[in-house]
Amino acid sequence: MILNRSEQPLIKDIESFNISKAPSLLLPNGIPFYYLNTGSSEMIKVEWMFNAGNWHQSQSLVAFAVNNMLIEGTARYSSLQIAESIEFYGGHLGFHVDKDNAFVSLMCMRKYLPQILEFVEDIIKNPTFPELELETFKNKHKQQFQVEQTKLKSIARIVHTRMLFGNEHPYGCVVNETDFDQLSCMQLLGFHKQFYHAKCCKIIASGKVAEAEINIIEEHFGSNDWSSPETTIDMQYAIQTETEQRVFIEKPEAVQSAVRIGKILVNKDHADYVGLTVLNCILGGYFGSRLMKTIREEKGYTYGINSLYVTFSSAGYITIASEIGTSVTNNAIDDIYAEIELLREELVSAEELSRVKNYMLGEMVRMFDGPFAQAESLISLLEYNLQYKHFNETIEKIKSISSTNILELANQYFEPSSFHQVIVGKLE
Amino acid sequence: MHLHKSMVNFTRFQLPNGLKVLINEDITTPLVAINILYAVGSRNEHPDRTGFAHLFEHLMFGGSANIPSFDEPLQMVGGENNAFTSNDITNYYITLPADNIETGLWLESDRMLALDFSEKSLNVQKNVVMEEFRQRYLNQSYGDIWLLLRPLAYKVHPYRWPTIGEKMEHIQEATLSDVKSFFETHYAPSNAIIAISGNINASNGFALVEKWFGNIKSSASKKQQIVPEPAQTEARTLTVTRKVPFDAIYKAWHIPSRLDKGYYVCDMITDLLSSGKSARLYQTLVKEKKLFSDINAFVSGDVDAGILVIGGKVMKNVPTETANLAILEILSNLSQTPISARELKKVQNRYETNLLLSQTNALNKAMNIAYFEMLGDANLLNHEVDKYCSIAPSDVANTAKAIFTEQNCSTLYYMAENN
């Protein structure tokens, strides 16, 4: 048989795929507990999600410090005892704070879950934020912050979100070096008491989660001894986009400029959201995107350029990010705006649109590949109070969107003069 | 340990043209991962053309003999792909919905058959790679550490330059005839291993691989002789000054090659030193003595004799010599006092956890199967944890004593300009 190498083998469309829903139950204290018992391996992952992100802090860095210092000591155990005990059983403990929520995540072999949970319960419920540990924490993180501040791409990212949301808004607020000095144990204890308790918590377990694991998680986290005075006020902030649309920060020794171009967009619960993710994907959301093709693959101006659509609980934004050789920075920026214009002027071809749709559907399949990916996908729903049907609706919307829809969305949302731009580096 | 439960099973097959094929069936995922490893890396470069293997990797995405675009047909079936180049290998991988595996094999086979060599594609990718060089190594603080540390630790072996290349001029000077001869020498089926993991029946998988790769001509690839790095006989030190906020120290010691028992002991030493918050370097130097803001230990993981590196950023106002001596004190402690059974068990539990974790992902499995097959036998993968678990406290002390000598050490002092 002679192979026809110039013709692609038969394409099988992604019609639908199995989205395993996590069963859930309420623990006696009211915590919603979700479990995905899908694993063929002996690993288990447990994630605790608290409404304790930056949004809820009244002073810079407090949410971050509380989350990251849970592990630094309790009334019963020292920082070293905690770390050594969890690590002895092969447990990986992770801490993460974003704009809206804070997370503690544990990955371990299920045979050691009981031993490890003893310690995890204690650090989540009874951290003491010891003075000496806080001192070390401040100095270490302040120094790491100073290193980060020398990176042009970090400066561009920070300045860009400040331009979009304003310095008074939790999504745009800029951290200063002196903020580290202001942290105190009292503050951390106060924030912890207010936001790390049953009413602010959801638990998600994935992997090998059988009866025994469910019971032991309930034993440690289901009781009523873990609540707080109901004083949590939902803070409200107004977005105050800066009027200055172009910021240039000169770095005479740069060999590349870090560039960010973007604007505020709707978030996940808006009817236009899915359409805008398709539009963003065409522009710069995957390797075959228009920005990658023009600016990297045709002109070689950069190692990489992408357009990211970021969403939070109460807003979203699009940000085009790249590091570009200083001698071609201006050309590349002109090309970026030209690509935005083009989306508003010409219909996307059927071939390109179908490629983007299939790529995005493939991404959805990857979002449900294995228990841990499924848990992440579930968390992405919980962050926005969405239901599982959101995924099927997303799939249907991606499949049904037309080139005309894309053109309309581009005209409605992608007015070039509405984009904010920051360049950190050098212009030649 | 009950490792029989957590083996990665695979079936193996070799095509007449020399291509090795290994398949791991995993019906728990809707995807398949296809990993193709070519046994060529920056070690195979000419000293005047460093960075070439990596530049070549970029050219592999510029279209092949019968298919103008590599990425587009793959995106059309919901697939994703990428690649990396190391000192020893160039590794290409795809994940895609299992039903569309044939598109992946079609694409990979065509670029193994022949690339669409073009002057334009070469020129663009030279620029892209030079921007990558700038982005990763020149335009950020501490970015050039590997450009400095490698030639300090190696004087003879090609590991002395990084995969991005020794300097940008080498990338700039690459020609289309270099590209063609590199392809002919190194991209033969007999120099490649394909590993597939995911929702695929092994016999169907073999049939499809045979269909698309079976008629690619084998070519006699010459095994390149690489001169081993001679033993280091005296301490080496390099001090540089850069516009960075804090001083940093990087130290490198030569260690045995990848399959030597000593390699596993060295790797375990790096875990004792820096895996997790209870590890020695973090506890002593970051928390107790407050000499570093961060410090790490790791092995380079190369096939030939590699290096063990300890490096970190020194806290403001701490003299680098004080910081250096504190590292040496921890290492001397390691060679003098045997580690406790509990500390040993801690790192062994870590290996077991990491092994189980690595098996939850099809791409990870496909990469590992191909890598260990390149080392000699994919089944070595299933004995990795046994090797770590057979290490005794005395092995750790003896190896530490043998490795951490002054004459085996290269130290880079990376000084902040205004300190």
What's the SSE blueprint?
The complex is a heterodimer of chains A (428) and B (419).
Chain A: E1 24-26, E2 32-37, E3 43-50, H1 62-69, H2 79-88, E4 92-97, E5 102-109, H3 113-125, H4 131-148, H5 152-165, H6 179-182, H7 185-195, E6 201-207, H8 211-221, E7 246-250, E8 256-265, H9 273-285, H10 290-298, E9 302-311, E10 316-325, H11 329-345, H12 350-367, H13 371-382, H14 389-400, H15 403-413, E11 420-425
Parallel strand pairs in A: 2-6, 7-11
Antiparallel strand pairs in A: 1-2, 3-5, 3-6, 4-5, 8-10, 8-11, 9-10
Helix pairs in contact in A: 1-7, 3-8, 9-15, 10-11, 11-15
Chain B: E1 11-14, E2 20-25, E3 31-38, H1 52-59, H2 71-76, E4 80-85, E5 90-97, H3 101-113, H4 119-138, H5 145-153, H6 168-172, H7 176-186, E6 192-198, H8 202-213, E7 236-242, E8 248-254, H9 261-274, H10 280-288, E9 292-299, E10 307-314, H11 320-336, H12 341-358, H13 362-375, H14 384-389, H15 393-403, E11 409-416
Parallel strand pairs in B: 2-6, 7-11
Antiparallel strand pairs in B: 1-2, 3-5, 3-6, 4-5, 8-10, 8-11, 9-10
Helix pairs in contact in B: 3-8, 9-15, 10-11, 11-15
